[in-house]
Design a protein that fits this description.
alpha+beta
Amino acid sequence: MIDTSTLRFSSEKGFGESYYILCPVCWNSSIKLCHWEDGSEEIMECNVCKRMEEEMSSNEHG
């Protein structure tokens, strides 16, 4: 288990260990990775890049 990981639970997948990894685009550790008890892996999108993208699109339209 990684020192900075968080224990998660899903009724479908069982227990899981989640932690953040570095984004290759913005170099912030804001991509959440979760290893589930059933052997599956879930990778979320980068929160920082997503926020920057939303800000850029709101500036274009606003």
